[in-house]
Specification:
The protein has 159 residues and is α+β, with helices and mostly antiparallel strands. Helices cover 53% and strands 24% of the residues. The protein has five helices and seven strands. It has a four-stranded antiparallel beta sheet, with no helix packed on it. Strands 5-6-7 form a three-stranded antiparallel beta sheet. A hairpin with a 5-residue loop joins strand 6 and strand 7. It is elongated.
Length: 159
């Protein structure tokens, strides 16, 4: 097994991951219920409301579909700006060779916890909160064989 990738994390990648995780959780369900409720209430009471209340209703209708994703994107943009870019990941029989500039680390397979497919990317977790994000753009046509090979390596190292 030998795979080598150079990773560049974009704000859009972090935004997609964050939105995916939000809307695949109870918070996302609450967001959808709140958004639909506000739109229905606005539609029902629009004619009876004064100008000020109509402005508030309009702003409330924008919270979930516009303001929240915009806020998430601005946070993702900040995260992408401080994330190390150009990390080179080489997946070999002995583990993951990570190179960033002059820094080098070998992550043996026994330290790799899982590989997860989420929102057009794969995340190779080295612990519960940290991992390496490889987008479909980086993996190209190798994504399925890469996923199967890494999954097999993780399963083998646990035995």
């Amino acid at each position: 097994m030998y795979y080598q990738y150079k990773c560049y994390i974009r704000a859009a990648d972090l935004w997609r991951l964050s939105m995916y995780r939000t809307y695949h959780s109870p918070v996302g369900v609450c967001n959808i219920v709140f958004g639909v409720s506000v739109i229905l209430l606005s539609y029902r009471f629009w004619d009876q409301a004064g100008d000020f209340v109509q402005a508030l209703l309009f702003m409330a209708c924008l919270i979930i579909p516009v303001i929240q994703p915009l806020g998430v994107y601005l946070k993702a943009k900040t995260q992408a700006a401080v994330s190390p870019q150009g990390t080179e990941l080489t997946f070999q029989e002995d583990g993951i060779h990570v190179t960033l500039g002059a820094q080098y680390e070998l992550v043996p397979w026994k330290r790799v916890r899982n590989i997860v497919r989420e929102a057009g990317m794969f995340i190779v977790f080295t612990d519960a909160n940290h991992g390496y994000m490889l987008t479909n753009r980086v993996l190209g046509s190798e994504k399925e064989t890469f996923y199967q090979d890494v999954k097999a390596k993780i399963d083998t190292s646990r035995k």
